[in-house]
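Researcher: Next sequence.
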Amino acid sequence: MARILAMDFGTKRTGIAVTDELQIIASGLTTVNTKELLQFLKDYTKNESVELLLVGEPKQMDNTASESEVHIKPFIAKLEKQFPNIPILRVDERFTSKMAFQTMIDSGLKKNQRKNKALIDEISATLILQSYLYSK
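Model: Next structure:
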């Protein structure tokens, strides 16, 4: 089997998480500067087999699209061009940032460490991936 890769897309940084090859465990991989994201994905898919890309879908409480969707749609168009053989799915990402922050508190990270926005993005991507795996 191949891995599933999930992204918590942001205009500055994008958190990335992947499954193991059996698609059982979701793990945070890294946070990448969004300007370097496509190149990172090209390099990653050269070394690892990826069968599915998940992109977080930010929604408002009334289920309408978030303002950040304006930035995500063009990115997805580039993804589709760059990786025509890998399907792309959207996963509702409501509350993942709050859940990521709470995870940091629960795991005992000090206040100073919890200010690390890159870590929050990576944990958010992991939560997006886990929610997809649970729904499968």
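Model: The two ends are 15 Å apart (CA to CA). The mean pLDDT is 86.
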